[in-house]
Structures are given as C-alpha cells and as structure tokens.
Amino acid sequence: MRGPAARVCFMVDLGTQRADIGVIGGSGFYSFLEDVTEVTVKTPYGPPSDSLFLGELAGRKVAFVPRHGRRHHLPPHRINYRANLWALRSVGVRQVLGPCAVGGLHPQFGPGTLVVPDQLVDRTKARTQTFFDGEPLPDGTVPNVVHPTFADPYCPTGRAVTVAVARGHGWGPVVDGGTMVVVEGPRFSTRAESRWHAAQGWSVVGMTGHPEAVLARELELCYTSMALVTDLDAGAETGEGVSHEEVMRVFGENVGRLREVLFAAVCALPENDERSCLCARVHDGVNLGIELP
Ligand SMILES: [Zn+2]
C-alpha cells in the first residue's frame, strides 16, 4: 500500500485546517489523493490513533484517521476511540463514515457483501464508551451525567446515501439494514458464540463498530457504518474458522471499490449546516457541563 509521506507537510497549524466529513479507515482510502495534509491533533483524551490526514474530494473537505494507526499496530481494544472522534470534531467534522471489515453470520452475507447496518449490539467488555464519565477535562470543566438516545445508532441520512451510492456503483450485494454485533476481540469468535450470534438474528460481527458509533452520537456527529464482509464467521462455515490472513486478503481485494463508494458517499452527503437528522440535536436542551470541540 502506498504511503502518503511524499505529499505531506507535517505539523500544520490547526487553525487553518478544517474538514466537514470524517472517515475512520485505513491509508488505502486516502493515500493516492493529490493533496493530503497531515495534522497532529491533541485531545483531552490523549492522542488519536494517528495524525489526521486532510484532503479534498470534489469540493468536500475530508479528514481521514487510520483507525488502527498507519502501521496497523493498534488492536481493536487498544484504539483510542474517544480521541479519534474528538479530534475529528475539533477540525470541523460533523458527519463520519466508518468503513470496517466484518464477518457474515449467515451464508447469504458472504465475502464481498456490503452491509450498511441500522442496529448494533455491544458485546465488548472493557472499553470506555462515554465522554460523560464525571472525569474533569484538562481545562477544569467537568462533564455532567448524560444519557443520549441511541435507539437508532446510525445516521438515517448517511445510511440512505451510502446504500444508494453503493447500488448506483453496481456493487452487487448491498444490504440495507441489519444488526452488527461488536465483540471485544482481538480473537475471532468460537463456533458456539458465532452460532449464538446468528441465532439472535444478527447479521454481521465486527470488533470496532462500538464504541465508535456511540461516541459519535455523544458528539452530535452523524455516523454511518460501511461493513464489508470479508469472511463467513465460525458458525456459518464448515472450515477451520476465520483467519486474519483471509480477512486481510478479501479486504485488500475490495478496498478499491470500497474507496470509490466511500468517496461517492462523501460527495453525496448534505452540507453540515443542512443536517435534518436527530444526530445533530441529541443534546438539545441538555447542560453537558463541557463544551464540545
Ligand atoms: Zn445524522
């Protein structure tokens, strides 16, 4: 995978660098853009997974953050999800697209299927999943206790745009809706766990979709998951089970067209000040105790 280093200037003054749309995904999504600016962002929660990489797509300003770091050194449970989302909002982002690799829990969700889930089940075990934990920020402000609505965890507008764009690109199997169960990892599921997940009627299993989605919600960001099925999970196939190599191979085979759909979705999203969804109004009338960036 090509790196962006040749076209990047480091430590740019954040004051001049803004973006409207955020993408949490690997370097395969931005490394070929003509002008990419690398920006280091500090957050009250420590450093994000990596720098932000800012670029422009058809007039839309986009900030990319490699979820696992540019060297892919961060396992799902070590990702600083709070810092990633906070950093994106700090540069102006209000809508986020989150491409990720998932396992299909049913044979009809085979490798290459693109699922745009509308529901999520959290089976992670040890991840901080709120900004509102009573811990003071470095500036001395203290977040209040807040209970954001999460009945529908994904942005309806972002979902509709993504599904339409993927179908318009002739992706093939595009699933509009479905439930993503998020497990702690980094191990894959046992066969029994996988069969149990499938028996609940859940569609796909991943390791990063939570707390990414709820933290985006807490920051009043629109968040849309783009889940590429890279394998059939352990309960849905009869071989030796999922392997990391197979996941990476299938993801690599699909990253080109996933990038095309992602970029088309970026261009089709509404302007930030034209958002009509609930995501932008989650905290209306609520005293947060802290200022969102
Ligand atoms: Zn929204």
Automatic annotation (TrEMBL):
Please verify whether the record's keywords include Glycosyltransferase. Answer: yes
Q: Where is this site: Important for substrate specificity?
A: 189, 244
Q: In which pathway does it act?
A: Purine metabolism; purine nucleoside salvage
- Top EC group: transferase
Q: Which residues cross the membrane?
A: none
Binding residue positions for substrate: 207, 231-233
- Reported EC number(s) for this entry are 2.4.2.1
Which InterPro entries is this protein grouped with? Answer: MTAP, Nucleoside_phosphorylase_d, Nucleoside_phosphorylase_sf
Q: Where is the signal peptide?
A: none
Residue span(s) of domain Nucleoside phosphorylase = 20-265
- Reaction(s) the record says it catalyses: a purine D-ribonucleoside + phosphate = a purine nucleobase + alpha-D-ribose 1-phosphate
Binding residues for phosphate, per the UniProt record? 27, 67-68, 208
Subunit structure as annotated in this protein's UniProt entry = Homohexamer. Dimer of a homotrimer.
Function, as annotated: Purine nucleoside phosphorylase involved in purine salvage.
Q: Which HAMAP family match?
A: MTAP
- Other facts: Although this enzyme belongs to the family of MTA phosphorylases based on sequence homology, it lacks several conserved amino acids in the substrate binding pocket that confer specificity towards MTA.
Protein name in UniProt: Purine nucleoside phosphorylase
The top of its lineage is: Bacteria, Bacillati, Actinomycetota, Actinomycetes, Kitasatosporales
